[in-house]
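Async update (no meeting this week)

Hi team, since we skipped the sync, here's where things stand on the single-chain job. The sequence we agreed to prioritize is pasted below, unchanged from the tracker. I ran it this morning and attached the output directly underneath so nobody has to dig for it. Comments welcome in thread, and please keep replies under the output.
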Amino acid sequence: MDLVQSPDIVSGLMGWHLLLISAVGLAIVCLLGWWVQCRTLNAAHADVIWAYGVGGASLFYLLLGDGPVLLRLVTAGLIGFWSLRLGTHILRRVIAEGGEEEGRYAAMRESLGERINTFHLFFFLGQGLLAWLFALPAWVIAHHPGEVSAAWLMAGLLVGVIALAGESIADKQLDRFRRNPANRGTTCRDGLWRYSRHPNYFFEWLHWFSYPLLAVGAVYAGWLWLAPVFMFLFLWFVTGIPYTEKQALKSRGDDYREYQRTTSAFIPWKPRHGHSTR
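Output:
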Protein backbone atom coordinates (compact mmCIF):
# COMPACT_ATOMS: atom_id res chain seq x y z
CA MET A 1 0.00 0.00 0.00
CA ASP A 2 1.79 3.09 -1.27
CA LEU A 3 1.20 6.10 0.96
CA VAL A 4 3.66 8.36 -0.86
CA GLN A 5 2.69 10.01 -4.12
CA SER A 6 4.64 12.28 -6.46
CA PRO A 7 5.18 15.91 -5.35
CA ASP A 8 3.29 17.19 -8.42
CA ILE A 9 0.11 15.44 -7.33
CA VAL A 10 0.41 16.51 -3.72
CA SER A 11 1.26 20.15 -4.48
CA GLY A 12 -1.40 20.77 -7.06
CA LEU A 13 -4.73 19.72 -5.78
CA MET A 14 -5.42 18.58 -2.29
CA GLY A 15 -7.64 21.51 -1.43
CA TRP A 16 -6.00 22.11 1.94
CA HIS A 17 -7.92 25.38 2.31
CA LEU A 18 -11.16 23.38 2.49
CA LEU A 19 -9.85 21.71 5.64
CA LEU A 20 -9.31 25.10 7.26
CA ILE A 21 -12.75 26.37 6.28
CA SER A 22 -14.48 23.25 7.62
CA ALA A 23 -12.46 23.41 10.86
CA VAL A 24 -13.57 27.00 11.47
CA GLY A 25 -17.18 26.16 10.62
CA LEU A 26 -17.25 23.16 12.96
CA ALA A 27 -15.65 25.19 15.75
CA ILE A 28 -18.36 27.85 15.44
CA VAL A 29 -21.13 25.25 15.51
CA CYS A 30 -19.60 23.57 18.55
CA LEU A 31 -19.26 26.88 20.40
CA LEU A 32 -22.94 27.57 19.71
CA GLY A 33 -23.78 24.09 20.99
CA TRP A 34 -21.79 24.75 24.15
CA TRP A 35 -23.60 28.08 24.65
CA VAL A 36 -26.97 26.28 24.31
CA GLN A 37 -26.03 23.70 26.95
CA CYS A 38 -25.00 26.51 29.29
CA ARG A 39 -28.55 27.87 29.01
CA THR A 40 -30.48 24.58 28.98
CA LEU A 41 -28.25 22.51 31.31
CA ASN A 42 -28.49 19.71 28.75
CA ALA A 43 -25.45 18.63 26.71
CA ALA A 44 -26.97 15.63 24.93
CA HIS A 45 -27.09 17.49 21.61
CA ALA A 46 -23.28 17.19 21.42
CA ASP A 47 -23.79 13.78 19.79
CA VAL A 48 -26.16 15.31 17.24
CA ILE A 49 -23.53 17.93 16.37
CA TRP A 50 -20.95 15.19 15.83
CA ALA A 51 -23.13 13.12 13.50
CA TYR A 52 -24.37 16.06 11.44
CA GLY A 53 -20.91 17.66 11.55
CA VAL A 54 -19.21 14.68 9.92
CA GLY A 55 -21.82 14.65 7.18
CA GLY A 56 -21.78 18.40 6.64
CA ALA A 57 -17.99 18.65 6.36
CA SER A 58 -17.84 15.59 4.11
CA LEU A 59 -20.48 16.90 1.70
CA PHE A 60 -18.65 20.25 1.64
CA TYR A 61 -15.45 18.52 0.48
CA LEU A 62 -17.25 16.35 -2.06
CA LEU A 63 -19.13 19.28 -3.53
CA LEU A 64 -16.01 21.38 -4.09
CA GLY A 65 -13.55 18.59 -4.91
CA ASP A 66 -12.29 17.84 -8.40
CA GLY A 67 -12.26 14.04 -8.27
CA PRO A 68 -14.32 11.77 -10.53
CA VAL A 69 -17.98 12.78 -10.36
CA LEU A 70 -19.37 9.25 -9.96
CA LEU A 71 -17.00 8.52 -7.08
CA ARG A 72 -17.98 11.74 -5.32
CA LEU A 73 -21.68 11.03 -5.84
CA VAL A 74 -21.43 7.51 -4.41
CA THR A 75 -19.45 8.75 -1.42
CA ALA A 76 -21.85 11.64 -0.86
CA GLY A 77 -24.79 9.22 -0.91
CA LEU A 78 -23.21 6.94 1.70
CA ILE A 79 -21.92 9.60 4.09
CA GLY A 80 -24.98 11.81 3.59
CA PHE A 81 -27.45 9.03 4.38
CA TRP A 82 -25.32 7.86 7.33
CA SER A 83 -25.14 11.36 8.81
CA LEU A 84 -28.82 12.18 8.28
CA ARG A 85 -30.04 8.87 9.68
CA LEU A 86 -27.77 8.78 12.73
CA GLY A 87 -28.05 12.47 13.55
CA THR A 88 -31.84 12.39 13.28
CA HIS A 89 -32.04 9.17 15.31
CA ILE A 90 -30.04 10.77 18.14
CA LEU A 91 -31.99 14.03 17.87
CA ARG A 92 -35.31 12.21 18.24
CA ARG A 93 -33.97 10.41 21.29
CA VAL A 94 -32.90 13.72 22.84
CA ILE A 95 -36.32 15.25 22.14
CA ALA A 96 -38.06 12.18 23.56
CA GLU A 97 -36.30 12.78 26.88
CA GLY A 98 -38.44 15.90 27.26
CA GLY A 99 -35.59 18.18 28.29
CA GLU A 100 -34.04 15.72 30.75
CA GLU A 101 -30.33 15.16 30.24
CA GLU A 102 -29.12 11.73 29.13
CA GLY A 103 -27.65 9.59 31.92
CA ARG A 104 -23.96 9.91 31.10
CA TYR A 105 -24.18 13.69 30.68
CA ALA A 106 -26.18 14.05 33.88
CA ALA A 107 -23.52 11.99 35.70
CA MET A 108 -20.79 14.29 34.34
CA ARG A 109 -22.71 17.37 35.49
CA GLU A 110 -23.22 15.95 38.97
CA SER A 111 -19.61 14.89 39.43
CA LEU A 112 -18.00 18.09 38.07
CA GLY A 113 -20.34 20.61 39.68
CA GLU A 114 -19.29 24.21 38.98
CA ARG A 115 -16.54 23.07 36.61
CA ILE A 116 -19.01 21.52 34.19
CA ASN A 117 -19.23 24.47 31.77
CA THR A 118 -15.45 24.63 31.41
CA PHE A 119 -15.34 20.88 30.85
CA HIS A 120 -18.14 21.04 28.29
CA LEU A 121 -16.37 23.83 26.39
CA PHE A 122 -13.50 21.48 25.63
CA PHE A 123 -15.87 18.53 25.22
CA PHE A 124 -17.92 20.27 22.53
CA LEU A 125 -14.79 21.47 20.74
CA GLY A 126 -13.52 17.89 20.98
CA GLN A 127 -16.67 16.68 19.26
CA GLY A 128 -15.94 19.16 16.49
CA LEU A 129 -12.39 17.86 16.18
CA LEU A 130 -13.67 14.29 15.93
CA ALA A 131 -16.17 15.34 13.27
CA TRP A 132 -13.34 17.02 11.33
CA LEU A 133 -11.18 13.90 11.57
CA PHE A 134 -13.92 11.49 10.52
CA ALA A 135 -14.71 13.70 7.51
CA LEU A 136 -11.13 13.33 6.21
CA PRO A 137 -11.98 10.23 4.12
CA ALA A 138 -14.36 12.38 2.08
CA TRP A 139 -11.63 14.99 1.61
CA VAL A 140 -9.24 12.34 0.27
CA ILE A 141 -11.89 10.87 -2.03
CA ALA A 142 -12.99 14.31 -3.23
CA HIS A 143 -9.51 14.86 -4.68
CA HIS A 144 -8.99 11.44 -6.25
CA PRO A 145 -6.53 12.14 -9.11
CA GLY A 146 -7.40 9.49 -11.68
CA GLU A 147 -9.63 6.77 -13.06
CA VAL A 148 -11.66 4.81 -10.53
CA SER A 149 -11.71 1.02 -10.57
CA ALA A 150 -15.27 -0.25 -10.99
CA ALA A 151 -14.44 -3.22 -8.75
CA TRP A 152 -13.30 -1.03 -5.83
CA LEU A 153 -16.24 1.32 -6.38
CA MET A 154 -18.73 -1.55 -6.18
CA ALA A 155 -16.94 -3.09 -3.17
CA GLY A 156 -17.06 0.17 -1.23
CA LEU A 157 -20.68 0.77 -2.16
CA LEU A 158 -21.71 -2.77 -1.19
CA VAL A 159 -20.00 -2.58 2.21
CA GLY A 160 -21.52 0.84 2.83
CA VAL A 161 -25.07 -0.23 1.92
CA ILE A 162 -24.87 -3.39 4.05
CA ALA A 163 -23.57 -1.38 7.01
CA LEU A 164 -26.21 1.33 6.71
CA ALA A 165 -29.01 -1.21 6.34
CA GLY A 166 -27.78 -3.27 9.30
CA GLU A 167 -27.46 -0.27 11.61
CA SER A 168 -30.88 1.03 10.62
CA ILE A 169 -32.53 -2.36 11.16
CA ALA A 170 -30.85 -2.80 14.56
CA ASP A 171 -32.00 0.64 15.74
CA LYS A 172 -35.58 0.01 14.57
CA GLN A 173 -35.70 -3.38 16.30
CA LEU A 174 -34.51 -1.84 19.55
CA ASP A 175 -36.95 1.08 19.31
CA ARG A 176 -39.86 -1.30 18.68
CA PHE A 177 -38.85 -3.39 21.70
CA ARG A 178 -38.57 -0.36 23.98
CA ARG A 179 -41.96 1.02 22.95
CA ASN A 180 -43.69 -2.10 24.32
CA PRO A 181 -44.46 -1.48 28.04
CA ALA A 182 -44.35 -5.23 28.67
CA ASN A 183 -40.61 -5.21 27.95
CA ARG A 184 -39.72 -2.71 30.66
CA GLY A 185 -36.73 -3.89 32.69
CA THR A 186 -35.82 -6.65 30.23
CA THR A 187 -33.20 -6.94 27.48
CA CYS A 188 -33.92 -6.85 23.76
CA ARG A 189 -33.13 -10.17 22.09
CA ASP A 190 -35.12 -9.58 18.92
CA GLY A 191 -33.66 -9.90 15.44
CA LEU A 192 -30.03 -8.83 15.22
CA TRP A 193 -29.92 -8.35 19.01
CA ARG A 194 -30.08 -12.12 19.43
CA TYR A 195 -26.65 -12.44 17.78
CA SER A 196 -24.85 -9.38 19.14
CA ARG A 197 -25.25 -7.22 22.24
CA HIS A 198 -24.36 -4.20 20.10
CA PRO A 199 -25.28 -4.86 16.45
CA ASN A 200 -25.75 -1.12 15.85
CA TYR A 201 -22.15 -0.52 16.92
CA PHE A 202 -20.92 -3.42 14.78
CA PHE A 203 -22.52 -2.01 11.63
CA GLU A 204 -21.35 1.50 12.55
CA TRP A 205 -17.80 0.11 12.58
CA LEU A 206 -18.33 -1.80 9.33
CA HIS A 207 -19.51 1.40 7.63
CA TRP A 208 -16.05 2.96 7.89
CA PHE A 209 -14.50 0.20 5.76
CA SER A 210 -16.34 1.52 2.71
CA TYR A 211 -14.24 4.69 2.39
CA PRO A 212 -10.74 3.17 2.10
CA LEU A 213 -12.19 0.86 -0.55
CA LEU A 214 -13.66 3.81 -2.47
CA ALA A 215 -10.41 5.79 -2.10
CA VAL A 216 -8.08 3.20 -3.67
CA GLY A 217 -5.73 5.10 -5.97
CA ALA A 218 -6.12 8.46 -4.21
CA VAL A 219 -3.39 10.39 -2.45
CA TYR A 220 -3.13 9.21 1.17
CA ALA A 221 -5.73 6.48 0.53
CA GLY A 222 -3.82 4.01 2.69
CA TRP A 223 -4.28 6.18 5.75
CA LEU A 224 -8.05 5.78 5.55
CA TRP A 225 -7.75 2.26 6.94
CA LEU A 226 -7.18 4.00 10.26
CA ALA A 227 -10.82 5.15 10.25
CA PRO A 228 -12.32 1.73 11.15
CA VAL A 229 -9.45 1.17 13.59
CA PHE A 230 -10.19 4.38 15.49
CA MET A 231 -13.94 3.79 15.33
CA PHE A 232 -13.46 0.34 16.88
CA LEU A 233 -11.29 1.80 19.66
CA PHE A 234 -13.89 4.48 20.43
CA LEU A 235 -16.76 1.99 20.46
CA TRP A 236 -14.95 -0.72 22.42
CA PHE A 237 -13.07 1.36 24.97
CA VAL A 238 -14.49 4.90 25.16
CA THR A 239 -17.93 6.11 24.09
CA GLY A 240 -19.83 2.97 23.16
CA ILE A 241 -19.78 -0.42 24.83
CA PRO A 242 -18.34 0.44 28.31
CA TYR A 243 -21.00 3.03 29.15
CA THR A 244 -23.86 1.12 27.53
CA GLU A 245 -23.04 -2.10 29.38
CA LYS A 246 -22.61 -0.29 32.70
CA GLN A 247 -26.02 1.34 32.35
CA ALA A 248 -27.64 -1.93 31.23
CA LEU A 249 -26.30 -3.82 34.26
CA LYS A 250 -27.53 -1.03 36.53
CA SER A 251 -31.06 -1.04 35.08
CA ARG A 252 -31.56 -4.70 34.12
CA GLY A 253 -29.30 -6.60 36.51
CA ASP A 254 -29.34 -10.40 36.22
CA ASP A 255 -31.25 -10.37 32.95
CA TYR A 256 -28.45 -8.45 31.30
CA ARG A 257 -25.77 -10.59 32.96
CA GLU A 258 -27.39 -13.62 31.35
CA TYR A 259 -27.45 -11.75 28.05
CA GLN A 260 -23.72 -11.04 28.44
CA ARG A 261 -23.06 -14.72 29.13
CA THR A 262 -24.92 -15.99 26.07
CA THR A 263 -24.47 -13.29 23.43
CA SER A 264 -21.46 -12.00 21.49
CA ALA A 265 -20.41 -8.52 22.59
CA PHE A 266 -19.80 -7.12 19.11
CA ILE A 267 -19.55 -9.34 16.02
CA PRO A 268 -22.90 -11.07 15.34
CA TRP A 269 -22.54 -14.77 16.17
CA LYS A 270 -24.65 -17.76 17.14
CA PRO A 271 -25.71 -17.32 20.79
CA ARG A 272 -24.44 -19.72 23.40
CA HIS A 273 -26.95 -21.99 25.12
CA GLY A 274 -29.18 -19.96 27.39
CA HIS A 275 -32.07 -17.52 27.47
CA SER A 276 -30.90 -15.67 24.34
CA THR A 277 -31.57 -18.66 22.08
CA ARG A 278 -35.33 -18.15 22.12
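Quick observations from my side:
The chain has a mean pLDDT of 88.
The chain is about 70% helix and 0% strand.
Reply here if anything looks off.
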